[in-house]
Each structure stands twice: as structure tokens, then as C-alpha cells.
Amino acid sequence: MFRRRESVPFSFVAEADRFRSNVTPPPRPRSTVSERAGSALVCLAVVAGLAGALLLGLPALAPEKSPAHSQQTEAAHAR
Questions:
Q1: How many CA atoms lie within 13 A of 13 on its CB side?
Q2: pTM for the full model?
Q3: Which contacts (CB < 8 Å, 24+ apart) does range 33-40 have?
Q4: By CB atoms within 10 Å of each CB, which of 18, 43, 57, 58 scores lowest?
Q5: Where are the membrane-spanning stretches (predicted)?
Q6: Torsion angle of C-alpha atoms 52, 58, 60, 64, degrees rounded to 10
Q7: pLDDT (tens digit per residue) in 55-74
Q8: What pLDDT digit, counting tens, does each position of 16-42 carry?
Q9: Which residues, 6 or more positions from 21, have their beta carbon under 8 angstroms from its beta carbon?
């Protein structure tokens, strides 16, 4: 059936909590003015799209102003 695997020593796990690397990642290059302007334009386009969708969608979500009792079905007209 199944073979038992060999036991794994877990001493390396305890040592890993105490280990600290002295290697630091290289510094990130500074973004250029054009990259910042491009990301600002993308953010502006997303915000404008959400605002436009909200402005165009609000009239569709608003309840109609006609009174509810004037809406009658065709079956009510037949009587």
C-alpha cells in the first residue's frame, strides 16, 4: 500500500525564525515624469468613467413620478 516516508527534521524551521539576511534588495528606480503623468491619466480616466456611469445610471434607477394607482393592467381595462 503506502510506504511511510522518512521523518523530516524540523530544526531548520526553528532556525529560520531567527535568521536575518544581510542582503538588501536593490533600490527601485525613480519613476519619470511621463510615467507619473501616464498613471495619473489612467486614474483620471477610471474615475471619470465611474462618475459618468453613475450620472447616466441614476435616472434609470430613480422611481417614476407617475402615481401608482394610474398604472392598471389590461385585465382591469377589460372589465
A1: 3
A2: 0.48
A3: none
A4: 18
A5: 38-62
A6: -150
A7: 999 888 888 776 555 555 66
A8: 556 666 788 889 899 999 999 999 999
A9: none
